[in-house]
Amino acid sequence: MAEKGPLKISVKSLKSSGLSLEDVEMAIGRVAIEEEWEPMGPTPMPKIATLREWDMRLLNRYKPFYMPFCDLCCLCTYGKCDLSGGRRGACGIDIAAQQGRMVLLTWVIGAAAHTSHARHLLDHLIEKYGEDWPIDLGKEIHVEMPVTRLVTGIKPRTLGDLAYTLNYVEEQIIQTLSATHTGQEGSYLDFESKNLHVGMLDHVGMEVADVAQVVTYGFPKGDPDAPLTEIGMGIADLTKPIIFCIGHNVSSGVEIVDFMRRYGFGRPGEQIEVLGLCCTALDITRYDNQAKIVGPISHQLRFIRSGAADVLVISEQCIHTMVVKEAQRTKTPVIAASDKACYGLPDMTDKPVEEIVDTLVSGRQPGVLILDMEKVGAVAVLTAQKMAPVRKKFKTLPDDKNKNELAEHCINCGECRRICPIDLPIDEAVFAAKHGNFDKLTELYDKCLGCTSCESECPTDIPIHSLMVSAAESKVKTERHKIRIGRGPILDTEIREVGSPIVLGEIPGVIAYVGCANYPEGGRDVTIMAEEFLKRRYIVTASGCSAMSIALYRNEEGKSLYEEYKGYFDAGGLVNVGSCVANPHISGAAIKIASLFGKRKLRANYEEIADYVLNRVGACGVVWGAMSQKAASIASGYNRLGIPVILGPQGAKYRRLYLGRKEDRGCFEVFDARTGDKNWIGPAPEHLIYVAETREEAMVMTAKLCIRPNDTTKGRMIKLTHYTDLYKKFYGKLPEDLHLFVRTEADVPITIKGEIMEYLKDGGWKPWEVPTIDPTLLERLVRVKKKEE
Amino acid sequence: MSVTPWRRGNVPGSKIALKLTGEVAGKILKKAKNPVIIVGAEALKTKVGEELLIDYVIKIANLAKIPIVATANTLSAFLERNLKPALSMGSIEITDRLRDPEWSLDGSMPHEIAVYVGITYQLQSQLLSCLKIFAPHIKTIALDRYYHPNATWSFQNLSEENWIENLNVLVETLT
């Protein structure tokens, strides 16, 4: 069902006794227009419990594994309640349910952030382009918005339809949030079902946000050859005024670029530099690839402190909350452009542009709040232009002499390390610097998250972060790399090409590097992992901070991976889909494989499509730097769709995983849709969400989690080749669970067949009686009734 | 004197680890009926004096005859030292099994003591939390240099010298 509306009635002139109307326009709700693009599936706009049965099937195999961050509950005035030792809270809740509840709160925060971002952006775009603006993703994408179609049953035609879709998402987010109130849900499993529900909703909200900006702003519509742009701390031309945008909402950045184009400032980089950080950077470059990306979230404070920016524009999400104070240190005025992040700044939305610019340039206010995006564009450009000449002296990184002086104050107390979220040996590095050796500090530059907690803890007030950036000065200045701008959705033609080899296993997997930059040992790990799988001809996709981190390291040939590998959604392709909200293009690709290649009904048919993806599409997400609530809800959305996710070690702090146990054969039994028989299919995939301790473990697990029961013998052989090869490379021997994945001798990797067969036979392996089936968790999909029936 | 977690914010609640010394650790392990040591990848790069932590762990395991579970990619380092661990498994996966009172490495009696060492601090803390809350049948020992409040017993935050001293006492106690 497509929705149109509201219905508009224009009245030029109406006169009757006691009533006189002229030039009146009335809008009456929305009008539903039935468009049977496909018969309506079983679960349009699912509510909390609609897909509960599917969730329980998943949770029966992949049981919740809780690692409480805290043994207490402090959410109501009954508490604090101690839930350790089997105790229950005063409301009756136990610690398992409390973990599910806290996880739900976290996931809802994440989904709400994306969805409110979508709403803010969409309202702005409807105001600018009108609600009838078409959802046109080009000639090679006929199945637009697969996530939205699958979940809601709506085939959005216009921006107005997207607003209607968001109404559903917002309503459901509120419903699920309400379940966390005291005395509501009490079952940990039902909390988990709601977590999966929120994750699914999150992908709809994100899809709305990204498609809305793609169709209106003219971002690439799935262009595999989307251009390259620059990324890194060293990209800025310091001789020009610099506008620095931080956050996730691109609308302010677009208005900046538009103002420059309109009023003779040219494109970004010609007279004025437009730089961005975090996802808004990715999205500004999708609008104009002469804009540049400073880097992921870790680069935020270090770039502000460099003093390079002449004006700072913050939108929403992932903003360091010290941003205004930090900007003041280098006399950089701040423009806040979202009511979700006002930062105590005066609201000057209704003031004339000249007055706001004067307020900022004069320094009367450290920043202003402007909730009119066009005005943000004008003020940012004019302020940058005026500030640049007077800000030249604000270079704050310590010079060599200062560096030595600052390090002198280190008393080697170790407090900096104890506060570091990733336990970096900062203490050793600063103490070494005190003795003239800055090498260790330089090494930390690539690993540091840029949070500056170490500085707040230092008893002698050493500006440790600045010291580190200064120590790495030559690295900082030459940090200049290439990234392919976010291409957005995957083309239908690409899906048709790769659908078969993915489902049959001949393309060994689709890997998605997504999420934040809370890496245990720096972003280089993501580059290394991505390169490993690109060489092995997996399809590698990326979004958000991970997409940026991949670009920040050069390979042996001096190129970034984006220069080395094509942007096609095909074996050996590296696909940057875009910012966080572009994630549904990856989940959407899995859905389209089921729909376009698998010929499964798409419309409101969530359970069947997820069943298809779980059993047939060898996809795996890797959130190596998991930090935010948004990354958590993104992962949950992948999970409900049957896509496993691997988190970095910091992800353990999300406090819940879904783990399978390979020895538990009953959990890995599925129906054969051809016969109705239940068959054991091996632990494929073994886990639904998992934490890896090291990069090496993550790579081995990634290859393993791409194995699916539907693999053909050729496909399974290819997947096992990569799994065994990586296992041998990093673990030094053949995997001990190999027998669980080798169904017949034909599955065995040909290059080391003798070694594997000997190994298997020593372990008592025998060929499976039923090696290949048509796997499904859904009994209703069994096509042939049993004889006795 | 109270002990603060190595990560200051890592305050778990009402139940926190008892302070451990090398001697106490030795006595517990000597007395244990079916202990297990879980060894993480930090053991491959953490120094104990001139040795690597993994070598020290092997010494302890051999003396106390405790089976080793190698997590992540530590397996290859054990194999290079001609030692085949009882199991190679992800730190998450082995912790998942240990919370099950019916499970053990050899299928006999459940493990009543699990020693965790060499897993990156934040992850190890969460793993210990899981067992503290959901596995009342098992007690845990954290042998790293840093205080783990979620363990049953943990060393305090120690200087490298004090840590080595405690580990040496542990080895002596087991000898």
Overview of this protein structure:
- The complex is a heterodimer of chains A (789) and B (175).
- By secondary structure, chain A is α/β, with parallel strands linked by helices.
- Among the domains of chain A are: 1-34, no CATH class; 35-217, Carbon monoxide dehydrogenase alpha subunit. Chain M, domain 1 (Helicase, Ruva Protein, domain 3, Orthogonal Bundle), CATH 1.10.8.190; 228-390, 3-Layer(aba) Sandwich (Rossmann fold), CATH 3.40.50.2030; 401-477, no CATH class; 713-771, no CATH class.
- In chain A, strands 11-10-9-12-13-14 form a six-stranded parallel β-sheet, with helices on both faces.
- In chain A, helix 2 runs antiparallel to helix 4 (159-178).
- The longest helix of chain A has 35 residues, at 95-129.
- The model of chain A has no long low-confidence stretch (mean pLDDT 94).
- With 175 residues, chain B is an alpha/beta fold.
- Chain B has a single domain (21-174), classed as Rossmann fold (3-Layer(aba) Sandwich), CATH 3.40.50.
- In chain B, 37% of the residues lie in helices and 15% in strands.
- Chain B contains six helices and nine strands, in the order βαβββαβαβαβαββα.
- Chain B has helices at 22-31, 53-64, 75-80, 91-98, 121-134, 160-174; strands at 18-19, 35-39, 47-48, 51-52, 68-70, 87-88, 113-117, 139-142, 153-154.
- In chain B, strand 5, helix 3 (75-80) and strand 6 (87-88) form a beta-alpha-beta unit.
- Chain B starts with 17 loop residues before the first strand and ends with a helix.
- Classes of the chains: A alpha/beta (789), B alpha/beta (175).
- Chain A binds chain B through residues 65-72, 82-86, 95-96, 418-419, 421-423, 520, 649-650, 652-653, 655, 657, 659, 661, 690-694, 696-697, 700-701, 730-733, 736, and chain B through 6-8, 11-15, 40-41, 71-73, 75-76, 79-80, 88, 90-93, 96-97, 119-123, 126-127, 129-130, 132-134, 136, 157.
